[in-house]
Amino acid sequence: DAKTTQPTSMDCAEGRAANLPCNHSTISGNEYVYWYRQIHSQGPQYIIHGLKNNETNEMASLIITEDRKSSTLILPHATLRDTAVYYCIVRVAESALSSNTGKLIFGQGTTLQVKP
Amino acid sequence: DTGVSQNPRHKITKRGQNVTFRCDPISEHNRLYWYRQTLGQGPEFLTYFQNEAQLEKSRLLSDRFSAERPKGSFSTLEIQRTEQGDSAMYLCASSLAPGNTEAFFGQGTRLTVV
Questions:
Q1: Does the beta-carbon distance from A87 to B42 stay under 8 Å?
Q2: Which of A32, B22, B49, B66 is most deeply buried (CB count within 10 A of its CB)?
Q3: Is B4 within 8 Å of chain A by CB?
Q4: What confidence tens digit (pLDDT) does each residue in B20-33 have?
Q5: Residues forming a β-bridge with A50
């Protein structure tokens, strides 16, 4: 699985959009970009994932560059409860014929501090 | 379904003692994972089950560690002769396979070896 690079920490004002970048310059064509977050003393929580196209769900938007070498997670209106460590993970796409385990390789992530 | 459940949430043990943690995954999930997380680090993969078969083990999983998933439902992780370096959060996750879906994590078991 490709390696990712994220800033160690970021701050965001409450109510503003939080834009968390991730570089994955060695990503392969069959690798997805996944985002998880971990609030203090809890297990990681899935946020969103994508392959090529931008994705949006009730939690966030994922913008993937055309060359797929980087992506940005957007929390449109950050709240204090969004303070967490955010992990960007690249994972090989699976099929019924693949032998992938689906395990996740976590880096150190970005610590997002949302401030009042 | 209340998600992935882990017990106990906290465990303090003396060095040299054995400990066992339990994970109850989401009921229809055939994949189960164990991870370990130390302070300030991201979770590290330990082992993976598909149904009752243990299909992958990390080099982090020393001989003192053993995991089982006897009926393809709940799983246990046992650490024998605990060492202070085993102090960490032990996380369990489950997912459906095959598929490019998300994994669901439990709240973890925090182990402190004194």
A1: yes
A2: B49
A3: yes
A4: 999 999 998 999 99
A5: A33
